[in-house]
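User: Reviewer 2 asked us to show a designed sequence for the structure in our supplementary figure. I'm pasting the C-alpha coordinates here. Could you produce the per-position amino acids so we can include them in the response letter?
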Protein backbone atom coordinates (compact mmCIF):
# COMPACT_ATOMS: atom_id res chain seq x y z
CA UNK A 1 0.00 0.00 0.00
CA UNK A 2 2.83 2.37 0.86
CA UNK A 3 4.50 1.81 -2.52
CA UNK A 4 1.20 2.38 -4.33
CA UNK A 5 0.62 5.58 -2.38
CA UNK A 6 4.12 6.70 -3.36
CA UNK A 7 3.36 6.12 -7.04
CA UNK A 8 0.10 8.09 -6.78
CA UNK A 9 1.88 10.93 -4.98
CA UNK A 10 4.63 10.92 -7.61
CA UNK A 11 2.14 11.13 -10.48
CA UNK A 12 0.29 13.94 -8.73
CA UNK A 13 3.52 15.87 -8.19
CA UNK A 14 4.60 15.25 -11.79
CA UNK A 15 1.28 16.60 -13.06
CA UNK A 16 1.60 19.74 -10.97
CA UNK A 17 5.21 20.40 -11.99
CA UNK A 18 4.47 19.76 -15.66
CA UNK A 19 1.42 22.01 -15.48
CA UNK A 20 3.56 24.80 -14.02
CA UNK A 21 6.01 24.56 -16.92
CA UNK A 22 3.17 24.43 -19.46
CA UNK A 23 1.65 27.63 -18.07
CA UNK A 24 5.08 29.25 -18.19
CA UNK A 25 5.71 28.13 -21.76
CA UNK A 26 2.32 29.33 -22.98
CA UNK A 27 3.03 32.87 -21.80
CA UNK A 28 4.54 33.64 -25.21
CA UNK A 29 2.14 31.86 -27.55
CA UNK A 30 3.71 33.00 -30.82
CA UNK A 31 7.08 31.67 -29.69
CA UNK A 32 5.40 28.41 -28.70
CA UNK A 33 3.75 27.96 -32.11
CA UNK A 34 6.92 28.83 -34.02
CA UNK A 35 9.06 26.47 -31.95
CA UNK A 36 6.49 23.68 -32.21
CA UNK A 37 6.40 24.05 -35.99
CA UNK A 38 10.19 24.15 -36.11
CA UNK A 39 10.41 20.92 -34.10
CA UNK A 40 7.89 19.26 -36.41
CA UNK A 41 9.91 20.27 -39.49
CA UNK A 42 13.25 19.23 -38.00
CA UNK A 43 12.01 15.78 -36.98
CA UNK A 44 10.47 15.38 -40.43
CA UNK A 45 13.92 15.66 -42.02
CA UNK A 46 14.65 12.05 -41.04
CA UNK A 47 11.68 10.81 -43.03
CA UNK A 48 12.62 13.13 -45.88
CA UNK A 49 15.92 11.26 -45.99
CA UNK A 50 14.04 7.95 -46.26
CA UNK A 51 11.89 9.35 -49.08
CA UNK A 52 15.03 10.51 -50.88
CA UNK A 53 16.55 7.05 -50.51
CA UNK A 54 13.44 5.39 -51.94
CA UNK A 55 13.51 7.75 -54.90
CA UNK A 56 16.56 5.76 -55.98
CA UNK A 57 15.55 2.23 -54.93
CA UNK A 58 12.33 0.22 -54.92
CA UNK A 59 12.91 -1.54 -51.60
CA UNK A 60 15.26 -1.65 -48.62
CA UNK A 61 16.33 -5.18 -47.70
CA UNK A 62 13.06 -6.34 -49.24
CA UNK A 63 10.90 -3.78 -47.37
CA UNK A 64 8.74 -1.36 -49.33
CA UNK A 65 8.41 2.35 -48.56
CA UNK A 66 5.06 1.99 -46.71
CA UNK A 67 6.53 -0.83 -44.59
CA UNK A 68 9.61 1.21 -43.68
CA UNK A 69 7.29 4.16 -43.01
CA UNK A 70 5.38 1.92 -40.58
CA UNK A 71 8.62 1.19 -38.69
CA UNK A 72 9.53 4.87 -38.77
CA UNK A 73 6.12 6.06 -37.60
CA UNK A 74 5.86 3.53 -34.79
CA UNK A 75 9.37 4.32 -33.52
CA UNK A 76 9.04 8.10 -33.70
CA UNK A 77 5.52 8.15 -32.22
CA UNK A 78 6.56 5.99 -29.26
CA UNK A 79 9.71 8.00 -28.71
CA UNK A 80 7.76 11.23 -29.07
CA UNK A 81 5.45 10.20 -26.21
CA UNK A 82 8.40 9.17 -24.05
CA UNK A 83 10.33 12.34 -24.88
CA UNK A 84 7.30 14.46 -24.00
CA UNK A 85 7.01 12.75 -20.62
CA UNK A 86 10.68 12.29 -19.70
CA UNK A 87 12.73 14.37 -22.12
CA UNK A 88 14.29 16.44 -19.34
CA UNK A 89 16.07 13.51 -17.71
CA UNK A 90 19.26 13.79 -19.80
CA UNK A 91 19.80 17.17 -18.09
CA UNK A 92 20.19 15.49 -14.69
CA UNK A 93 23.98 15.40 -15.03
CA UNK A 94 24.07 19.20 -15.27
CA UNK A 95 22.00 19.48 -12.09
CA UNK A 96 24.38 17.16 -10.27
CA UNK A 97 27.45 19.09 -11.41
CA UNK A 98 26.10 22.52 -10.43
CA UNK A 99 24.69 21.27 -7.11
CA UNK A 100 21.03 22.04 -7.86
CA UNK A 101 20.15 18.33 -7.65
CA UNK A 102 20.57 18.62 -3.86
CA UNK A 103 17.66 21.06 -3.80
CA UNK A 104 15.37 18.39 -5.23
CA UNK A 105 16.37 15.96 -2.49
CA UNK A 106 15.15 18.16 0.36
CA UNK A 107 11.72 18.85 -1.11
CA UNK A 108 8.81 16.71 0.17
CA UNK A 109 8.14 15.47 -3.36
CA UNK A 110 9.40 12.27 -5.07
CA UNK A 111 12.70 13.11 -6.77
CA UNK A 112 11.89 11.16 -9.93
CA UNK A 113 8.70 13.19 -10.42
CA UNK A 114 10.70 16.40 -10.09
CA UNK A 115 13.35 15.29 -12.56
CA UNK A 116 10.77 14.01 -15.05
CA UNK A 117 8.57 17.10 -14.86
CA UNK A 118 11.45 19.58 -14.90
CA UNK A 119 11.31 21.87 -17.94
CA UNK A 120 8.29 20.01 -19.31
CA UNK A 121 7.45 21.49 -22.70
CA UNK A 122 4.55 20.96 -25.08
CA UNK A 123 6.93 22.00 -27.85
CA UNK A 124 8.08 18.37 -27.87
CA UNK A 125 4.70 17.43 -29.34
CA UNK A 126 6.13 18.15 -32.78
CA UNK A 127 7.98 14.83 -32.86
CA UNK A 128 4.88 12.90 -31.76
CA UNK A 129 2.60 14.62 -34.28
CA UNK A 130 5.00 14.10 -37.17
CA UNK A 131 5.58 10.44 -36.30
CA UNK A 132 1.86 9.85 -35.89
CA UNK A 133 1.17 11.37 -39.30
CA UNK A 134 3.68 9.04 -40.98
CA UNK A 135 2.32 6.06 -39.05
CA UNK A 136 -1.23 6.91 -40.12
CA UNK A 137 -0.19 7.16 -43.77
CA UNK A 138 1.67 3.86 -43.62
CA UNK A 139 -1.38 2.05 -42.24
CA UNK A 140 -3.31 3.11 -45.32
CA UNK A 141 -0.54 2.67 -47.89
CA UNK A 142 0.90 -0.66 -46.72
CA UNK A 143 -0.63 -3.91 -47.95
CA UNK A 144 -1.85 -5.21 -44.58
CA UNK A 145 -4.26 -8.10 -44.17
CA UNK A 146 -6.15 -6.59 -41.26
CA UNK A 147 -7.53 -8.65 -38.38
CA UNK A 148 -8.88 -7.58 -34.99
CA UNK A 149 -5.64 -8.67 -33.35
CA UNK A 150 -3.54 -6.54 -35.72
CA UNK A 151 -5.80 -3.52 -35.24
CA UNK A 152 -5.44 -3.77 -31.46
CA UNK A 153 -1.72 -4.43 -31.67
CA UNK A 154 -0.91 -1.07 -33.31
CA UNK A 155 -1.92 1.23 -30.38
CA UNK A 156 -0.63 -1.36 -27.91
CA UNK A 157 2.72 -1.28 -29.70
CA UNK A 158 2.93 2.53 -29.55
CA UNK A 159 2.07 2.76 -25.83
CA UNK A 160 4.36 -0.15 -24.89
CA UNK A 161 7.16 1.33 -26.96
CA UNK A 162 6.77 4.66 -25.18
CA UNK A 163 7.01 2.88 -21.81
CA UNK A 164 10.19 1.11 -22.93
CA UNK A 165 11.76 4.41 -23.96
CA UNK A 166 10.72 6.02 -20.66
CA UNK A 167 12.44 3.14 -18.86
CA UNK A 168 15.60 3.84 -20.89
CA UNK A 169 15.38 7.53 -19.94
CA UNK A 170 15.05 6.65 -16.24
CA UNK A 171 17.87 4.09 -16.34
CA UNK A 172 20.06 6.64 -18.10
CA UNK A 173 19.29 9.21 -15.42
CA UNK A 174 20.25 6.66 -12.76
CA UNK A 175 23.54 6.09 -14.57
CA UNK A 176 24.21 9.83 -14.56
CA UNK A 177 24.08 9.83 -10.77
CA UNK A 178 27.25 7.74 -10.90
CA UNK A 179 28.88 9.23 -14.01
CA UNK A 180 27.63 12.85 -13.56
CA UNK A 181 28.46 13.67 -17.19
CA UNK A 182 26.92 10.96 -19.33
CA UNK A 183 24.14 12.69 -21.24
CA UNK A 184 25.66 11.67 -24.58
CA UNK A 185 25.83 8.04 -23.49
CA UNK A 186 22.15 8.21 -22.59
CA UNK A 187 21.31 9.88 -25.90
CA UNK A 188 23.04 7.05 -27.77
CA UNK A 189 20.42 4.64 -26.43
CA UNK A 190 17.41 6.97 -26.71
CA UNK A 191 17.87 9.11 -29.84
CA UNK A 192 20.20 6.53 -31.35
CA UNK A 193 17.77 3.74 -30.54
CA UNK A 194 14.80 5.38 -32.19
CA UNK A 195 16.86 6.13 -35.30
CA UNK A 196 17.98 2.52 -35.57
CA UNK A 197 14.41 1.23 -35.22
CA UNK A 198 13.32 3.29 -38.21
CA UNK A 199 14.98 0.72 -40.51
CA UNK A 200 14.32 -3.01 -41.01
CA UNK A 201 16.20 -5.37 -38.68
CA UNK A 202 17.59 -7.23 -41.71
CA UNK A 203 19.72 -4.15 -42.47
CA UNK A 204 21.78 -4.73 -39.31
CA UNK A 205 24.10 -7.51 -38.22
CA UNK A 206 22.66 -10.39 -36.21
CA UNK A 207 24.77 -9.57 -33.15
CA UNK A 208 23.29 -6.07 -32.99
CA UNK A 209 19.78 -7.44 -33.46
CA UNK A 210 20.37 -9.95 -30.65
CA UNK A 211 21.59 -7.14 -28.41
CA UNK A 212 18.50 -4.96 -28.93
CA UNK A 213 16.25 -7.98 -28.50
CA UNK A 214 17.63 -9.81 -25.48
CA UNK A 215 19.85 -7.23 -23.71
CA UNK A 216 18.23 -3.82 -24.28
CA UNK A 217 14.89 -4.95 -25.75
CA UNK A 218 14.25 -2.02 -28.08
CA UNK A 219 13.18 -4.52 -30.76
CA UNK A 220 9.85 -4.82 -28.93
CA UNK A 221 9.16 -1.14 -29.59
CA UNK A 222 8.33 -1.89 -33.23
CA UNK A 223 10.42 -4.59 -34.94
CA UNK A 224 8.72 -7.59 -33.34
CA UNK A 225 5.08 -6.39 -33.32
CA UNK A 226 5.54 -4.87 -36.79
CA UNK A 227 6.55 -8.29 -38.11
CA UNK A 228 3.09 -9.59 -37.16
CA UNK A 229 1.19 -6.59 -38.50
CA UNK A 230 3.05 -6.49 -41.82
CA UNK A 231 3.38 -10.24 -42.24
CA UNK A 232 7.19 -10.06 -42.31
CA UNK A 233 9.67 -12.61 -40.88
CA UNK A 234 10.22 -12.21 -37.16
CA UNK A 235 13.67 -10.97 -36.09
CA UNK A 236 15.92 -13.89 -35.12
CA UNK A 237 13.07 -16.28 -36.01
CA UNK A 238 11.27 -15.49 -32.73
CA UNK A 239 8.01 -17.37 -32.03
CA UNK A 240 4.77 -15.71 -33.10
CA UNK A 241 3.51 -14.98 -29.58
CA UNK A 242 6.38 -12.53 -29.01
CA UNK A 243 4.55 -9.99 -31.18
CA UNK A 244 2.17 -9.49 -28.24
CA UNK A 245 4.89 -9.49 -25.57
CA UNK A 246 5.67 -5.76 -25.76
CA UNK A 247 3.53 -4.85 -22.69
CA UNK A 248 5.30 -7.50 -20.60
CA UNK A 249 8.69 -6.33 -21.85
CA UNK A 250 7.73 -2.72 -21.08
CA UNK A 251 6.62 -3.66 -17.54
CA UNK A 252 9.89 -5.51 -16.96
CA UNK A 253 11.96 -2.59 -18.28
CA UNK A 254 10.09 -0.11 -16.07
CA UNK A 255 10.59 -2.32 -13.01
CA UNK A 256 14.33 -2.64 -13.68
CA UNK A 257 14.64 1.08 -14.39
CA UNK A 258 12.85 1.87 -11.12
CA UNK A 259 15.24 -0.41 -9.25
CA UNK A 260 18.23 1.25 -10.92
CA UNK A 261 16.89 4.68 -10.00
CA UNK A 262 16.35 3.80 -6.34
CA UNK A 263 19.81 2.22 -6.14
CA UNK A 264 21.43 5.25 -7.72
CA UNK A 265 19.55 7.66 -5.47
CA UNK A 266 20.61 5.78 -2.32
CA UNK A 267 24.24 5.88 -3.42
CA UNK A 268 24.25 9.61 -4.28
CA UNK A 269 26.77 11.78 -2.49
CA UNK A 270 26.45 15.53 -2.78
CA UNK A 271 29.09 17.31 -4.84
CA UNK A 272 29.32 19.84 -2.02
CA UNK A 273 28.71 22.96 -4.07
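Assistant: Here is a per-position design you can include in the supplement:
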Amino acid sequence: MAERAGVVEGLRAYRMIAGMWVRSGMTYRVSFVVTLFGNLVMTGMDFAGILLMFSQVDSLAGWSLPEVAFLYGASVTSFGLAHLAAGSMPHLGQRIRDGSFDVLLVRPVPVLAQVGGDRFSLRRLGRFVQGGAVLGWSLVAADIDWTVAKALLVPLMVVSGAAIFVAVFVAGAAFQIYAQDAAEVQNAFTYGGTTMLQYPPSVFGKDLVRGVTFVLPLAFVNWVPAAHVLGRPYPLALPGWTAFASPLVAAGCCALAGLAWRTGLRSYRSVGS
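For the response letter, you might also mention the following. The chain is about 70% helix and 0% strand. Residues 176 and 193 are 18 Å apart (CA to CA).
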